[in-house]
Amino acid sequence: MENEQTLDVPDYIKNRVDLKAETITTFATALNVIKDNIDSTGFKKNRAILITSFGHITCDIVTNDATNDDPDEMSLFSSAIEARNLLLAEQPDTSLITNNTSLIMVKNADVISFSNPLAITHFNALVLFADQIVGYTFGIATPNK
């Protein structure tokens, strides 16, 4: 592949460890393992629930080790992140980076605001900034009526 561009990701991206993002994706992996190995069909309906200051997001968290049924579903986001990293690699080492937070990719997401829990917005794919998440759990989220 002669025309392939080498991506030299800056150390501040390559060596970043975002404890919040790592905890959430590890939780998602554990939840998926339990769902795959438990006999109870009721438990298999449980999904990850991410809490933000705006509301909550019931979703399937995309993990690095997950087998993706539709690999093209998240490809646009992955391509955008790679393009961002390529642009950052071209910046001088003295650049001041702000908002250095990790991303969490989710699919099949239902966003439910605290102000109007009956209005649910669905996204097939969604990228969240980890610093906006204040908590997480799992279950079957239903709005109070």
In brief, what are we looking at here?
This protein is of the alpha+beta class. Helices cover 29% and strands 28% of the residues. It has 4 helices and 5 strands, in the order H-H-H-E-E-H-E-E-E.
Could you please describe the fold and organization of this structure?
The protein is α+β, with helices and mostly antiparallel strands and 145 residues long. The chain has helices at 11-14, 19-37, 41-44, 75-89, and strands spanning 47-52, 55-61, 103-113, 120-129, 133-139. The protein has a five-stranded antiparallel sheet. A hairpin with a 6-residue loop joins strand 3 and strand 4 (120-129). It is globular. The N and C termini lie far apart (58 Å).
Describe how the helices and strands are arranged.
Layout: H1 11-14, H2 19-37, H3 41-44, E1 47-52, E2 55-61, H4 75-89, E3 103-113, E4 120-129, E5 133-139
List descriptors.
145 residues; alpha+beta; SH3 type barrels; five-stranded antiparallel beta sheet; 4 helices
